[in-house]
Design goal:
Elements: E1 11-14, E2 18-19, E3 32-34, E4 39-48, E5 51-61, E6 72-75, E7 79-80
Antiparallel strand pairs: 1-4, 1-7, 2-3, 4-5, 5-6
């Protein structure tokens, strides 16, 4: 997904399963944050100081209860703008 097109408030979907890499202290390391196809909302767009040309997106993904989870840093290639088809969710 092209991160230059994304702004806070935009809807995105996890392109792959996304796991905690240790950056979210209230979740176990390697805990599943979002399954592929999970809907999320862009909270912020920025970059790491060490890699200013690569956008880092702050996303809050919906849980099974439809409540937004903790902000999660994602790279653009971990996201898609297309909603998954019904067959993709099984």
């Amino acid at each position: 997904m092209e991160s230059a097109q994304l702004n806070p408030g935009d809807l995105v979907y996890a392109a792959t399963d996304i796991f905690n890499d240790g950056g979210i202290p209230d979740l176990a390391e390697d805990a599943l944050i979002a399954r592929a196809g999970t809907r999320g909302v862009v909270v912020n767009v920025g970059h790491l100081e060490e890699d200013p040309d690569r956008a880092l997106l702050l996303i809050r993904f919906e849980g099974d209860d439809l409540i937004l989870g903790p902000p999660t840093g994602c790279w653009a290639d971990e996201l898609t703008g297309a909603a998954p088809s019904v067959t993709d969710r099984t």
